[in-house]
Amino acid sequence: MSEPTGTTEVGSHRAAPIVGAGRAPALTARGVTKTYTAAPVLLDAELQLSFGEVHALLGGNGSGKSTMIKILAGVVGADPGGTVEVAGGAEPTDLTRWSAAEARRHHLRFIHQDLGLVPDLTVAENLFIEASLHARRGLVSWSRLRRDAEDVLARFDLDLAPEALVSTLSLAEQTLLAAARALHDVEPGGRAIVVLDEPTAALPSGQADELMSAIRRYADEGHAILVVTHRLGEVVAVCDRITVLRQGRVAATGPLADRTEDDLGSLITGVDAATEQRTARATEPHAGGAHDGLRLQGVRTDTLEGIDLEVRPGEIVGLVDAGGLTGSRVLRTVFGLERLTGGTVSLGGRPLRLRNPGRAMAHGVAYLPGQRLREALFPGLSVGENVLLASLPAHRRGGLLSIRRQRSAAADAVRRFRVHPADATAEVTSLSGGNQQKVSVARWMVREPRCLLLEEPTQGVDIGARAEIWALIADAVDGGAAALVVSSDYQELATHCRRVVVYARGRHVTTLTGADLTVPAIAEVVHHA
């Protein structure tokens, strides 16, 4: 692979040569174009990676980042005209002939937003699901599988039991496990190209820092790292170079140098940070009775013990879990997905009989799960069908569903919630991760819920779409809804919540509010919990 020597304009700065001194080129993709149903997602894009560097691929939702990664992984075909050249290859390869097998053969390793874990298999089985070295004469050596799993878990400092089912792990633990699976076969002294799509989206700040430190270490050992992230602080802290996509085109590329988070935000949005208005909304609860909102008293399930919690109408309350699955389980219990064995859940001063999600929905409860593709969306359906699934009875006419009403309502919702592309008939899986999340949020907002249960509502969402989603939440709360948000993004909780309740292994630790509700305060409580 020839080493480019030119310079590239990044914003108003002149960038250094494409490949830093002493850093060998690892991968060069040129002329990358991809079109879906006549709508271009990537347009003549270029990406160049070097060994020994962490390279950030940035852009808003729908900018083409995920499509670029899927093309490099060989799971999505590019339009004719593009090429990819990998270190050690004799010549560039036509991207229309690039495949997953070719990517693997050239030592490309991927961690996608959909982690690809099997919930009903153990940690050890997921780590080595593609390996045959633990099988002899068609039989698996379970003792060797366990030993090797323990070695990998120790190497990545993961406090997980090899025999634990993945379905019992938190989102953070699942993300870390997926990272370990992708990286464990990269041998010391060898060089690989590691691509991570939003690897820290579901992680608390401490665990995210640990993972980013591991990524930095791998680059320092000589590997080429490509990271897609919306957490711009991570880019400033860890990355060497950036490429910014905007509407499918490369808007900027070059060294990070001394750029700040605001600088990166401006490159991504195309709006100067000095003129961009960023407003935080710490909502005031509505006037009314002391217990008019959501109230949990002594709630017990098979996995919860004595949970007391209150969210008033017009209030956003955050819930941080320093260990375990308390937050997720609380949301699932209120939505009728986990059986209540003791205590009471009330809404508007009236106890709820939470036998199933249907009963919860009838009481005005809405639930957005944290696993977007597996739990929040229906991949085989269109955007419009996904939006309307929770409100079909509203589109009946004479006892029958009105197709005309459904189409009109779907088109209106796509416009109202700014889903891009604005096509209600498109497959929901064809959308970017951020736009898929908008669809998930829209499904519940059209019902005008009294209680919002939100798990990681902006996970994997770009800076612009995050603001839009929080604005939708704030609008619902302004209308009298009570919102309980489980999130690992301390900055968002400190910005948008009136109170943040911290739990550790099912035990209430503290509640932060007012001047005490800051990112450092949340992090300190979680660290010492």
From TrEMBL:
It comes from the Bacteria. Gene3D superfamilies: P-loop containing nucleotide triphosphate hydrolases. Signal peptide: none annotated. InterPro entries: AAA+_ATPase (IPR003593), ABC_carbohydrate_import_ATPase (IPR050107), ABC_transporter-like_ATP-bd (IPR003439), ABC_transporter-like_CS (IPR017871), P-loop_NTPase (IPR027417). Residues 27-272, 288-525 form the ABC transporter domain. This is ATP-binding cassette domain-containing protein. One of its GO terms (molecular function) is ATP hydrolysis activity. It holds the Pfam family ABC_tran. It comes from Nocardioides flavescens. Keywords: ATP-binding, Nucleotide-binding, Repeat, Transport.
